[in-house]
Write a structure and sequence with these properties.
The chain has a domain of 234 residues: 3-Layer(bba) Sandwich (FAD/NAD(P)-binding domain). The protein is built from twelve helices and 21 strands. The strands form four sheets. Strands 5, 6, 13, 14, 15, 16, 17, 18 and 21 form a nine-stranded mixed sheet that branches. Strands 8-2-1-12-20-19 form a six-stranded mixed sheet, covered by helices on one side. Strand 1, helix 1 and strand 2 form a beta-alpha-beta unit. The protein is globular, with a radius of gyration of 22 Å. It starts with 7 loop residues before the first strand and ends in an 11-residue tail after the last helix. The relative contact order is 0.18.
């Protein structure tokens, strides 16, 4: 019997794949981990000083995600360029309904954070340099074959193909690579008939660390505080939901015209829109996989579920799933079992399923409720928003959803003791 060349192969070294690799290095150091990434990666390419770009794309991190990164010892670095969300304002354009959440009401420093994707990637790469995680990049996982001892993965690198054996393959390369379908996983996709336009914008008034979720007749619109983590500035990250027709029309406008159109849809809560940066867009779909595991293979992140960005839950859900998988790998190693056993991966799926079902239902219901323009429905939802402000229990439930707080126990308790040491980053 030939010994496997590695224990775990991670297909994809983006935010999900890199976080999983770091969590395993911290929590299950006995495992040999190999990450296969299509983009070139080199320690020499990591800049010593990070200079944020105006057009940098960002991710909303819940308070629960902060706690996870604290467990991994990564938060002190991440927090250097993570803008806190201290207030959330939810409103229904043209109607009276609105609700407001404040971090201080929940005795927290913030409800969440907004961090540039590139900065998060740099922090992960720097942390991984000090681990035993192996990288193959640029390279791509082409196929996988089950074996009696686990899996054999076909990797293409520098135009050459090689086969690497291991106990398990984790697919973490998103929902567009095709590897998921190539391996035979069946997805369910529901097209919302909408697109997300992403850009950074500047306004005449400061955001005051407030995130705005504005529901309009054309779809939801979110503005998240962006820029300095220490002082409120005038830059926000925009997620603008548009139909195909409206998107095509907006893309034809000049920047000044885009700002005026945005002003019409959002209003004046942040003063005048003075600048809009480079715009990118993608179609919005709800994609789920009923069975995200099989012997020797597990899907994580967007490869397992892709959500509407309305509530900013996508990466936070993925992060919780990654830590659930790490917990099962830790247990399997302690019990002397292969991490690729179906019982191990099946337990990960069972534990994570309830979380993703509730999160999908939460996000999807917001789209359906606020997508209705009928007067009785509009009146009922506005009454609901007002009710959130008036009923403490309901508001607390909504806040916990937004903050991503659950009952998951820390995976790395020895690292989590650093949490109190970095509170200065939120001041």
């Amino acid at each position: 019997m030939t010994a496997p060349e590695t224990d775990l192969i991670i297909a994809g070294g983006g935010l999900a794949g890199a976080t999983l690799a770091l969590a395993l290095a911290r929590t299950v150091p006995e495992l040999r981990v190999t990450v296969v990434e299509t983009f070139p990666l080199s320690p020499d390419a990591l800049p010593e000083d990070y200079q944020p770009s105006y057009d940098a794309r960002s991710t909303a991190l819940s308070w629960g995600s902060r706690l996870i990164f604290e467990e991994l010892g990564l938060w002190p670095a991440l927090s250097e360029h993570a803008t806190p969300i201290r207030h959330i304002h939810v409103s229904d354009r043209g109607h009276f309904g609105a609700t407001r959440l404040h971090a201080e009401d929940h005795h927290q420093q913030a409800l969440g954070y907004v961090a540039d994707n590139r900065w998060m990637g740099l922090c992960l790469m720097r942390a991984l340099l000090d681990t035993g995680v192996q990288w193959q990049a640029p390279a791509e996982v082409m196929d996988m074959t089950p074996t009696p001892d686990g899996v054999e993965v076909l990797i293409r690198k520098d135009g050459q193909e090689q086969r690497v054996s291991g106990q398990c393959l984790v697919v973490a390369d998103g929902g567009r690579s095709g590897l998921r379908e190539q391996l035979g996983f069946v997805t369910r996709t529901e097209n919302y008939g909408q697109n997300a336009l992403i850009a950074n914008v500047s306004t005449s008034d400061s955001h005051q660390f407030t995130a705005y979720e504005r529901f309009t007749g054309d779809g939801p619109m979110a503005l998240l505080p962006h820029g300095s983590p220490r002082r409120p500035e005038n830059q926000s990250a925009l997620v603008w939901t548009l139909t195909d027709e409206a998107l095509a029309e907006v893309l034809e406008l000049s920047d000044e015209q885009k700002c005026r159109r945005l002003q019409e849809r959002f209003g004046w809560r942040l003063g005048r829109f003075t600048r809009i940066g480079q715009c990118s867009h993608y179609p919005l779909k709800l994609t789920t996989v009923d069975e995200a595991v099989r012997p020797g293979v597990a899907l994580v992140g967007n490869a397992a579920h892709a959500l509407h960005p309305v509530a900013g839950q996508g990466f936070n859900l993925a992060l919780r799933g990654l830590m659930t998988l790490v917990e099962q790998f830790r247990r399997a190693v302690d019990e002397g079992r292969s991490i690729g056993e179906l019982s191990v991966l099946g337990e990960y799926q069972r534990r994570h399923r309830r979380d993703w079902q509730q999160t999908v239902q939460f996000s999807d219901s917001l789209i359906r409720i606020f997508g209705q323009s009928l007067l009785p429905v509009a009146t009922a939802r506005d009454a609901g928003l007002v009710g959130l402000d008036l009923v403490p229990g309901a508001k607390r439930w909504f806040a916990r959803k937004a903050m991503g707080i659950g009952s998951r126990k820390p995976v790395v308790p020895s690292v989590s003791t650093t949490a109190g040491e970095d509170s200065r980053h939120d001041q």
